[in-house]
Amino acid sequence: MLDLTFNYCLSFPGVTAEEKWNEEMCFSVGEKLFCSMRVDSPYKLSFKCTPDQFHSLIARPDIVPMPYLARYHWVQVKHPSNFDWSELQAFIQQAYDLVVKMLPPEERDAVLKARV
Known about the structure:
40% helix; alpha+beta; 6-stranded antiparallel beta sheet; 26% strand; globular
């Protein structure tokens, strides 16, 4: 799961990866975090979501508010292996898109141009 997540996140334009916070691989675009994953077992995947999506996601089994980041609409998937990879990809893609939209215009334009 870690390798899939790592490679998928790095496939987006402008993404950097850095290990932080007690064994967390953090993925950022424009220095803004959009996804993280614990690198040691038990693996946990965390990502940004929309305010509307936040409450419906934490109502699902194995998804909880992300410690310290829940107020910014972050969730944590406690057992990513219990989910289809395609569903996790969609969550990660949406998190990336949300963060790109919040970047300053010149940074956002550079990322969007790199997509093409």
